[in-house]
Amino acid sequence: MRDILITGGAGFIGSNLTLALQEKYPDARIVVIDDFRSGDFKNLQGFRGDFLAADVSRLDFRAHFKDRTFDAIFHEASITDTTIHDQCLQTHDNVEGFRKVLEFAVTHQTPLVYASSAATYGIGSGRMAESQPPAPANVYAFSKVQLDNLARTYSRSFPSWKIVGVRYFNVYGPRESHKGSAASMIYQLYLQVKAGKRPRVFIAGEQKRDFVYVKDVVKMTIDALRAPQTRTYNCGSGIAFSFNEVIAELNKNLKTNLEPEYFENPYTFYQPHTEADLTIARTDLGYEPDYAPPAGIADYINVLEGR
């Protein structure tokens, strides 16, 4: 791991990944590419590597990097706001960005780990396994399905090349504040409670999410390089946790007692339940989350409170 390329490295997950890789491989040359649409330079405080300000869906990788080779590529660049409904923009930037990365990486068949999403499962209930057919309910999820399709297509042509998708569930944690309304519900509810306001959630707060702490996400994303073959893996806590339970944990850690304020859900594409089946990730990667939601929320609040 002497040379590492990370796209979207100034974003929420990307910056946490970048700084973790820098710590893990202090002598590695790390290059981050980001255009700051979903990122912020403040997320990379302490970064010692190279930075390229560019849109990966429009970047000529070979012209820029010439004959330089990398030991690993982590593709995190994406339009991540699921409420953006410009179908052409969302699909073009997410899909063509990945295609550009694949076309660059194929020359040396550089091990490639990319960000997929639990949104590909669509509106369902129960545990979600990688064998389920995709059922995207919005264009963001549709774009992520296309990434998985592209990975399989390249894998058939280059069976020895390892292209691994990490299907992130509901990620929360440090370095997400720049996302505003697109930040995790845990962060948004924290802000409301911290301001002394009743935390607002959809009626009746029993919708459940597989909230996964970003530290676990980073750990699994790095470990995905050890995958035995091209495939996608669920990355979650393996626990479905309700919004009411989140609010209870926030009250506990902030020593408050604010009751939820319920309101109608305006979104027809809203996932009422996400829960990752981690069987394959455990078998292939030895993945085991370190942070169940209560522990992750407590750790996150300690970070936010500067404790």
Written overview of the protein:
The protein is of the alpha/beta class. It has two domains: 3-169 and 214-237 and 277-285, NAD(P)-binding Rossmann-like Domain (Rossmann fold); 171-209 and 240-275 and 290-304, UDP-galactose 4-epimerase, domain 1, CATH 3.90.25.10. 35% of the residues lie in helices and 17% in strands. The chain contains nine helices and 13 strands. A seven-stranded parallel sheet has the order 3-2-1-4-5-6-11, sandwiched between helices. Helix 1 packs across helix 6, helix 5 (185-194) crosses helix 7 (243-254) and helix 7 packs across helix 9 (293-304). The longest helix has 19 residues, at 87-105.
Tally of separate domains: 2
For the secondary structure, the number of strands is 13
CATH architecture of the largest domain: 3-Layer(aba) Sandwich
Fraction of helical residues: 25-40%
Global shape: globular
What structural class is derived from the secondary structure elements? Answer: alpha/beta
Radius of gyration: 19 Å
Distance between the termini: 34 Å
In terms of per-residue confidence, which ranges show pLDDT below 50 for 5 or more consecutive residues?
A: none
**Average pLDDT for all residues:** 95
In short:
Helix 1 links the parallel strand 1 and strand 2 (29-34). The protein has 307 residues and is of the alpha/beta class. The longest helix is centred in the N-terminal third of the chain and has 19 residues, at 87-105.
